[in-house]
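Sample log: Integral membrane protein.
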Amino acid sequence: MPKNKRESLIYTLMMCFVMVLWMSIYNVGLHSGEVSWSVLKASWLGMPLAYCCALVLDWFVVSGPAKKVAFRLLPTFASPLKTVMTVSTCMVLPMVFFMSLYGAIEGLSHTQAWNQLLLLWGTNILKNVVMALPFQLLVAGPLVRKVFRRLFPEGTVLA
């Protein structure tokens, strides 16, 4: 886990990239009904805007309140694993909420069926939480933490 603001920013940049890329592929694949090169291409092309949106949401909207909730839920001397799992869960749930809205708006911008926004947003939340939470806890979290600490050993990124 990051130890200061600079580490936190670098970690957030890395984590957002992995999560947005994976969730973009997942959502484009869901909506097209297949996983193909065209799905990968569409996911990659839609990535910059989704990535920027996720970064802004993570850094300015979700992170502070999510960490406050997580640390209220944790006992004083919680294990590092329990801390990581709790903070990750408290971050993923609101990010799914907001990014599912982003996905619904982006998807409806092609069809102009704005009267279906709430329905699509709600179904996106359900579909995305089923993928995002396990992916974050089992794949992205461990992978990004490992790569982050290999690139930036503890104490090398100054506050």
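Observation: Residues 5-151 form one domain.
Observation: The chain has one domain: 5-151.
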